[in-house]
Design a protein that fits this description.
Structural class: alpha+beta
Largest sheet: 9 strands, mixed
Family: Belongs to the glutamine synthetase family.
Number of domains: 3
Pfam family, one: GSIII_N
InterPro entries: Gln-synt_C (IPR040577), Gln_synt_N (IPR008147), Gln_synth/guanido_kin_cat_dom (IPR014746), Gln_synth_cat_dom (IPR008146), Gln_synth_gly_rich_site (IPR027303), GS_Type-3 (IPR052725), GSIII_N (IPR022147)
Protein name: Glutamine synthetase type III
Oligomer: single chain
GO molecular function, one term: glutamine synthetase activity
Number of strands: 19
Length: 728
């Protein structure tokens, strides 16, 4: 029995485990493993609690005395729930999370064992900064870096899987010289600036608004593969995606997996990770089968952006851990299988005031609608002016396989508003008036009396648009499933904050000149609409016609990651980010270098995996199979069964033709890789990898996949698509 057939037998034999659901109600279970506001209110003195609450709401400084009291309470709470260690949990520019565990256990000078956790340990730790990507901000010998406690994201307890728990403290990560080496630090800066800018614009419409909070809901798509079959695919193990694999006869063409019945084994995994997520305060609410076989999605309730991003990063880590318990490998790669849909991470973003208003929700009241249009058009203008930067924020080697692949938003950044809103804006430009009627036309009349009236949203949803308005929020659909959502949110927050400040500047000038507020607002918005109209698109973003139309409009269509990333270091980007105080020119150049380097390394790994699998797994297996065929053909020829031997000889020739091409292409790809590796300029090296080395991937795959159809099923060394995708 081959390794592959044994793996398939193991996978087929698995059954859904019997889960014991928690005895608590979900409401009681929720956030039970977090140092939540309720826990702080119970354990802290009123003075300390007030200072912490103010710091979370307004960003005021936490003094060391308060930090000492919080750390004592946090230690007491964590130990009472089984924690033995603590860590600063942070998000370096590796794209994953990081942690360094320290024990509460310590010894006094006289050798007595104590449990210790001071305020200084809560506020700051020192991991080795030289071992994380810095883009030249730190030299290899410059090791010092700092993690710093983020009190706005609750500390939580993570089960170690071996009986103990670790207290995890969400933190920023900076270099010794103060530059951000993570996603959280610039994200927090961008949120502060967006709050400031949006609140100042709100003041034109409502003086009661003191704070604006960006909110985010992240829909997470993923694939599940049985662990045994995962280990039977070295490419999945090493590169996160299958570099070879012929499409099965049945893929997703029947559309029967989408929203279909969830199998018991998958459902058990979902239930298990959802309960654990709820304990960590992650408000997961939705689960369903996605379009592709073996693909699924989960989604939470909307949260403040910083918390939502922390929770998504934590959720991905949690899903992998729970997947191990259920003998599943969770695949977050944007395109793990060819020929079927890849995975995204749809980011649903909106703006809410401390008075309970969603600034991106239209109403029927003229004054409120003018406020809505102000924020709507400022977002559209920001996306229009910085479309290339927004495209750069979701660029990666993995997402490059997915974007524009007739399953995901194209590389062209466009904005969908819907027919009603577009007409409304046209009316604003042509007449200077705004009307939004709501009446019976917003209800479907089905002609079935037992069915209640179904309300129609004021906009449709366009799944082919990368950045679409969906009624009361914008959905950035182009984000990759493996990506940290902080990257696109840092960009979106910053460009919108920058644009809102520009709007306020123009309004202040007009009002100082004596212009009436409504007139000034409408005149500015009319100009914004005219200047940004070319980025609005209502049709099919997957069509060839849109590509041609976008080119006529002068919109960018940047398909290559190495080209897209350059937007991080353009003059307009640096100017906007430095003006907002989110990232300096030095930090932006560092991130550009890190992303390019990561792109090169990912393609380098894939290239090596392709070469190894093609020569050491496929070709070697094929040659052995050829020998069997040759023996059979020879035996038939010896028996003078020439006609019967002829088809076998043809198969041998077909196999040989593919083997010859594979060996040649692998050699050429290896030489192209060597050439690229010897190029000193990082952009040129990335370009060679993206255009030359990567250019061999599909060619080699074509011939390997043809061999999969020629070789006996029992002899084929790699787990096949039908085996991995259709397990219940």
């Amino acid at each position: 029995m081959t390794f592959r057939s044994k793996a398939f037998e193991i996978a087929q034999g698995r059954v859904a485990p019997v889960l014991t659901p928690p005895t608590e109600k979900v409401a009681d279970l929720y956030a039970s493993n977090t140092f939540s506001d309720d826990v702080m209110r119970t354990l802290l003195s009123p003075e300390a609690y007030t200072k912490i609450s103010n710091a979370i709401r307004s960003g005021s400084t936490i003094d060391r005395e308060v930090a000492d009291e919080v750390s004592a309470a946090m230690k007491s709470w964590a130990i009472s729930k089984g924690a033995t260690h603590y860590t600063h949990w942070f998000q370096p520019l590796t794209g994953t999370t990081a942690e360094k565990h320290d024990s509460f256990f310590d010894l006094t000078l006289d050798g007595k064992a104590v449990e210790k956790f001071k305020g200084s340990a809560l506020v700051q730790q020192e991991p080795d900064a030289s071992s994380f990507p810095s883009g030249g901000l730190r030299a290899t010998f410059e090791a010092r870096g700092y993690t710093g406690w983020d009190p706005s994201s609750p500390a939580f307890l993570m089960d170690n899987g071996a009986g103990g728990k670790t207290l995890c403290i969400p933190s920023v990560f900076i270099s010794y010289t103060g530059e951000a080496l993570d996603y959280k630090a610039p994200l927090l800066r961008s949120l502060v600036m967006l709050d400031k800018a949006a609140t100042s614009v709100c003041q034109f419409f409502n003086r009661d608004v003191d704070k604006v909070t960006p909110t985010l809901g992240i829909e997470q798509e993923y694939f599940l593969v049985d662990k045994a079959l995962y280990y039977a695919r070295p490419d999945l193990l090493m590169a996160g995606r299958t570099v070879f694999g012929h499409s099965p006869a049945r893929g997703q063409q029947l559309d029967d997996h989408y929203f279909g019945s969830i199998s018991p084994r998958v459902n058990a995994f979902m239930v298990d990770f959802e309960f654990e997520a709820l304990k960590l305060g992650i408000p997961v609410r939705t689960r369903h089968n996605e379009v592709a076989p073996g693909q699924f999605e989960c989604a939470p309730t909307f949260e403040e952006v910083n918390l939502a991003i922390d929770h998504n990063a934590l959720l991905m880590d949690l899903m992998q851990k729970i997947g191990d318990k259920h003998n599943f490998q969770v695949l977050f790669h944007e395109k793990p299988f060819a020929g079927i849909n890849g995975s995204g991470k749809h980011n649903n973003w909106s703006l809410s005031t401390d008075t309970g208003i969603n600034l991106l929700a239209p109403t029927t009241k003229p004054k409120e609608n003018l406020r809505f249009l102000t924020f709507l058009l400022n977002v559209v203008k920001a996306v229009h002016d910085h479309a290339d930067l927004l495209r750069a924020s979701i660029s990666s080697a993995g997402n490059e396989h997915r974007l524009g692949a007739n399953e995901a938003p194209p590389s062209i950044v466009s904005v969908f508003l819907g027919g009603e809103l577009t007409s409304m804006l046209e009316e604003l430009v042509n007449k200077g008036e705004i009307t939004l009627e709501k009446g019976e036309n917003f209800y479907y009349k089905l002609g079935i009396t037992r069915i209640p009236n179904l309300q129609r949203d004021n906009t449709d949803r366009n799944r082919t648009s990368p950045f679409c308005f969906t009624g009361n929020k914008f959905e950035y659909r182009a984000v990759g499933s493996a990506q940290n959502s902080a990257s696109p949110m840092i960009v979106l927050n910053t460009i919108v904050a920058n644009q809102l400040m520009e709007f306020k500047r123009e309004m202040d000038e007009r009002l100082s000149a004596g212009e009436e507020k409504k007139v000034a607002t409408v005149e500015i918005l009319k100009r914004y609409f005219k200047e940004s109209k070319r980025i609005l698109f209502e049709g099919n973003g997957y069509s060839e016609e849109w590509i041609a139309t976008a080119k006529e409009r002068g919109l960018s269509n940047i398909s290559a990651t190495y080209d897209a990333l350059y937007a991080y270091v353009t003059e307009s980007t640096i100017q906007a980010f430095e003006k907002m105080g989110v990232l300096s020119s030095r930090e932006l150049h560092a991130r550009y270098e890190i992303e390019l380097e990561n792109y090169v390394k990912k393609l380098q790994i894939e290239s090596r995996v392709i070469g190894d699998l093609a020569l050491n797994h496929i070709v070697s297996t094929v040659i052995k199979y050829q020998f069997k065929l040759a023996q059979t053909a020879r035996a038939l020829t010896d028996l003078e069964m020439l006609e019967e031997a002829e088809p076998i000889k043809e198969i041998i020739k077909d196999i040989s033709s593919h083997v010859v091409v594979i060996k040649r292409l692998v050699h050429e790809m290896t030489e192209a890789r060597k050439t690229a590796n010897n190029v000193d300029v990082l952009f040129e090296r990335a370009k060679l990898y993206g255009s030359e080395v990567k250019g061999y991937f599909e060619e080699i795959r074509y011939h390997v996949d043809k061999l999969e159809l020629l070789i006996d099923d029992e002899d084929w060394p790699l787990a096949k698509y039908r085996e991995m995708l259709f397990l219940e």
